[in-house]
Write a structure and sequence with these properties.
326 residues, alpha/beta, D-Maltodextrin-Binding Protein, domain 2, six-stranded mixed beta sheet, 11 helices
Length: 326
């Protein structure tokens, strides 16, 4: 399904749920809740697992996390989109839900096919490289790539991901040619960088940080917040080198299927926000470098709408030059 830019968004389950309160049991939840993560373990699911016990205690039911990677997150996303809107099947996912829909790798509408429950965090992105490459900054990478077109490879977590879009935008904005290599998650990307299979990778600060400190990878630039990261104050933001560079914001959040009733959304959001803000969970998220948000459903929906509009413009600009997202 191709999504038409400028459509009138209906925030499913947040602003226009049609199921009356009386139709839903007051005892929700009355059985375990499944959270599908459309990625391999060790990436997006980290924050969900940190929240797992606190949410289970708040809701009085087990929270079961199920990793369902594949097809650039489309398999897990479709499973949740088709689930009954009863609050017992949820999804923890990332910006790829928006970028994949715009690019066309996910045949789902992030607003019509899902109910936003809560954004957990936003994240700084890092353009990281394997140490042997002959460049130590984005400026040096651009110079090298211009002299060696198509010789530098970059990794993303899949076709249509936020990292893939970011890579193509950098190519477009800086006027360079990079060779895209998609992987199935941050874990495989890290293995590829450490194993010298790929030159550079667009990855979250949290995933790459241990390898930066150990010298097994090096940071060329940061991106997505338009400022330097406090954990790497000497590493320039991409915009300092490429002023016209722009990309979507990296985030992770909790969703349900479309049509999730307002009382269920409210209950789940309250449990998620309390879990995120609990001292043990929030301190761990912040320690890993996440920018904690713990949003309302409405705030998350507005964020998604803005990101969709941004991604639509960026993809239009990039594809106008002949780039194909494949």
């Amino acid at each position: 399904m191709k999504i038409v830019p400028g459509i009138l968004f209906c925030i499913a389950g947040v602003a226009c749920a049609l199921t009356p309160l009386s139709a839903w049991p007051q005892g929700f939840p009355s059985k375990p809740i499944r959270i599908v993560v459309p990625y391999p373990p060790g990436g997006v699911d980290v924050s969900i697992r940190l929240m797992q016990n606190a949410m289970a205690e708040d809701l009085g039911q087990p929270m079961l996390i199920e990793n369902r990677p594949g097809a650039n997150t489309a398999i897990g996303s479709a499973l949740v989109a088709r689930a009954a809107p009863d609050g017992y099947t949820l999804m923890g996912t990332s910006t790829a839900l928006v970028t994949g829909a715009v690019i066309g790798t996910i045949a789902l509408d992030p607003m019509k096919d899902f109910t936003p429950i809560a954004m957990i965090y936003t994240s700084m992105g890092v353009l990281a490289a394997r140490p042997p490459v002959p460049f130590n900054s984005l400026t040096e990478l651009i110079d090298y790539a211009r002299r060696n077109p198509g010789k530098v490879s970059y990794a993303s977590i899949g076709i249509g991901s936020e990292q893939h879009l970011t890579g193509e935008i950098l190519k477009f904005s800086a006027g360079i040619d990079l060779n895209h290599i998609p992987y199935k998650g941050f874990g495989p990307i890290l293995q590829a960088v450490l194993g010298q299979e790929v030159d550079v990778a667009f990855i979250t600060y949290q995933a790459i940080r241990p390898f930066l400190s150990s010298g097994k990878a090096k940071a060329l630039a940061v991106y997505s917040q338009r400022k330097r990261h406090s954990g790497m104050p000497d590493v320039a933001d991409i915009n300092e080198t490429v002023p016209d560079f722009n990309t979507t914001r990296s985030w992770v959040g909790l969703f349900g299927p479309a049509g999730l009733p307002r009382p269920v959304v409210t209950r789940l959001n309250a449990a998620a926000v309390r879990a995120i803000n609990s001292p043990s969970v929030r301190s761990k998220l912040e320690e890993m470098g996440f920018i904690v948000v713990a949003s309302t459903p409405e705030g998350f929906a507005e964020w998604i709408k803005t990101d969709f509009e941004t991604a639509t413009k960026l993809v239009k600009d990039v594809t106008a030059t002949g780039v194909k997202f494949e």
